[in-house]
Amino acid sequence: MGAHAERMMQGQNRGSWRSKSNFFGNRYPLDVVIEGDAGYTQQFERQQNKEAVAEFNANVKAWGKKVDDALRLSVARWIDTDKKLSKSLKQNYRHYGKTPMDGQEITSIGFGFKAEGVYVHLGVGKGYNMENGTRILTKTTNNEWKREPKPWFNPVIEQYIPELVEIVKKYCGTLLVNTTRIYINT
Known about the structure:
Layout: H1 3-13, H2 16-19, E1 30-36, H3 40-47, H4 50-78, H5 85-88, E2 90-94, E3 108-112, H6 116-122, E4 128-131, E5 134-137, H7 154-171, E6 175-178
Helix pairs in contact: 4-7
């Protein structure tokens, strides 16, 4: 693809994160992935035990509900006039990118919310930008800093990840919890 075509694509995608309410196709951009090194054969064997899969899925959904409740409390703690963010919080459970059917284990848990949640977490917005991990003041009317980061998301997730690891270990010790895509990058 040429440089002009790339610029055209970037222009078409500008602002798309906000318009999709933090949803990218079949996945949420902030999600935890449960991975295995064994492949489809071991997954097929695990899924033969329907009761174990159902218990695992129920435990993962209970974990997700607990995290969702904690995120809502965190929003209430950090944001004085929350009008939309806590209502926009959503959980998403997937089996390799699709909605899990009966007997299929959950392989990813996603959290979605309005784009404003990222801005609040990072302390950026109109007149305040991020460049290379550093907040910079870009407004020209007043050089006074009025926005501060309000870390309502990452600390809550960090607190609950060990519990998810235990749920996954109890279900199958060879599975791993990949958290590389769950945190809001600062």
